[in-house]
Amino acid sequence: MATSTGGLSALDGGEMMRYAEYSPKGSSRSDAEIDRRLGGTLIAVGLGVAAAGFAGRYAFQLWKPLGQMFSETVRKMPTSAFSSYYKGGFEQKMSKREASLVLGISPVSTKAKVREAHRRIMVLNHPDKGGSPYLAAKINEAKDLLDKDMRR
User: Which Gene Ontology terms of cellular component type are present (predicted)?
Assistant: First the structure.
């Protein structure tokens, strides 16, 4: 059982110790000290941001000639180099290569792929839906040429 020592039992002393471990410690820092440390931190952050800004400004001034040279080089490049579209008109007599380019498939595609590509492109370019009759004729010509080559 509990023995009494100095008016407190061992059980009571144990509980007091347990609560003492979890009790909040007194505020050892004054408000003035917290304000001083916060002010110092804010000043340090502000100086860091200012230094980064000045360094960035200096770097942009230093590399300005390089930036101008880069922009001139980009301006001189042909825009068709970045285009995914075929540059050039139609050939006099359609070749297998041109037919596959018109339909957007490989020249050695299967008959099913040719029909699917033809259907997909004709839905987008049909004259009844506002497409060009000339383009529709070229799309049909490309399908006929590739289908004819498949039969041989």
Answer: PAM complex, Tim23 associated import motor
- Torsion sign over Cα 100, 101, 106, 110: negative
Same domain assignment for residues 66 and 101: no
Name the pairing type of β-strands 8-9 and 4-5. Answer: antiparallel
DSSP state of 79: G
pTM, to two decimals = 0.44
Structure tokens at 33: 């000290």
* Domain total of the chain: 2
pLDDT computed for residue 114 by the predictor = 92
- Tokens linked to 25: 């410690």
Residue-level pLDDT at 18: 58
Question: Which residue blocks in 31-76 are alpha helix, DSSP H?
Answer: 31-62, 64-76
Which DSSP category does 28 fall into? Answer: -
Rounded-to-integer distance, Cα 91 and Cα 53, Å: 58
Average pLDDT for runs of 10 along the chain of length 152: 49 54 60 84 93 88 78 75 66 87 88 93 90 91 87 53
Distance separating alpha carbons of residues 29 and 26, to the nearest angstrom:
9
